[in-house]
Write a structure and sequence with these properties.
The chain is 24% helix and 24% strand. By secondary structure, it is an alpha+beta fold. The chain has one domain: Clavaminate synthase-like (Double-stranded beta-helix, 4-Layer Sandwich). Strand 2 (14-16), helix 1 (27-40) and strand 3 (42-45) form a beta-alpha-beta unit. The chain is globular, with a radius of gyration of 18 Å. It starts with a strand and ends in a 6-residue tail after the last strand.
């Protein structure tokens, strides 16, 4: 099967030709999709009526091992009974829209900050797949910023400054920015991980910034005002010229490379409009031969 890609943005994002991902099992087609990820960072597929089981199976075919330790697992049981399925919704276990002060809703507000999935784990997240199940009639979009283009446009002095730097990431940091309170036990389970601030795609050798709202500090930093430096890098990386905004439709299925992008949800009236998506993320380990 031949797959084609239509660019949606000069730097990041492409829509893929008609294909039923549930039926894609052959190595050649999967490799075309991986090459598309290398080129575009974000791939958009239309009319993909996934069940949870089918989404899990596709993610494993595409990239092997699944991320099964989301930050939310430290707070409450997963309503699907499987921590590999992240609940990106504004409803409770009964399907009712969450109250404004519901703890799950307050935690999920952190998705509106620029972030990289599972950067607070080691190994970190690699590819995220997001399936649109219920989309409201109002705009409830997702933005993606190209961290490769952001790195490429840095001046040489800044690139040299970044060489060898490592950053601590924890999901508690992004939530505490918004006033979310964690218990001592929750914090103990969410200590985080350390990653280089510049990461390299093992397939293409292209460099990208590795940033997130989960990033707390530069480790053993020779950089004065390290946290301010992280903020400045994020401001640079999320300029409009690097950002693709995806307007969701029911049945959309979007895959993005967490080595190449940051993303964030945009605000909508979540006390009024029902929205449900499911995310499955793979971890950054080599594919089996």
């Amino acid at each position: 099967m031949t797959v084609t890609f239509r660019k949606l943005h000069p730097h990041v994002g492409a829509e893929v030709s008609a294909i039923d991902l549930r039926q894609v099992h052959d190595r050649a087609t999967l490799e075309q999709l991986r090459a598309g990820m290398d080129a575009h960072g974000v791939l958009v597929f239309r009319n993909q009526p996934f069940t949870d089981a089918e989404q899990l199976a596709f993610a494993e075919r595409f990239d092997g091992a699944l991320h099964v330790k989301p930050g939310a697992s430290a707070l409450a049981a997963n309503r699907f009974g499987n921590d590999a399925i992240a609940d990106i919704s504004n409803v409770d276990n009964s399907g009712a829209i969450l109250k404004a002060d519901d703890r799950k809703r307050m935690y999920s507000l952190g998705n509106r900050l620029w972030h990289t999935d599972a950067s607070f784990q080691d190994p970190a997240g690699r590819y995220s797949t997001l399936s649109a199940r219920v989309i409201p009639e109002v705009n409830a979009d997702t933005e993606f910023a190209d961290m490769r283009a952001a790195y490429d446009t840095l001046d040489d002095a800044t690139k040299q400054k970044l060489d060898g730097l490592k950053v601590h990431h924890t999901i508690t940091h992004s939530r505490e920015i918004l006033g979310f309170d964690f218990s001592r036990e929750e914090k103990e389970r969410l200590k985080g991980a350390i990653h280089p601030i510049v990461r390299v795609n093992p397939r293409t050798q292209r460099k990208s910034l590795y940033l997130a709202a989960h990033a707390t500090r530069i480790i053993d930093s020779p950089v004065a005002d390290g946290r301010l430096f992280l903020m400045e890098l994020t401001e640079h990386a999320t300029q409009r010229e690097f950002v693709y905004r995806h307007v969701w439709k029911n049945g959309d299925f979007v895959i993005w490379d967490n080595l190449a992008t940051m993303h964030r949800a945009t605000a909508f009236d979540d006390a009024k409009h029902h929205r449900e998506l499911r995310r499955v993320t793979t971890i950054d380990v080599p594919l089996p031969a």
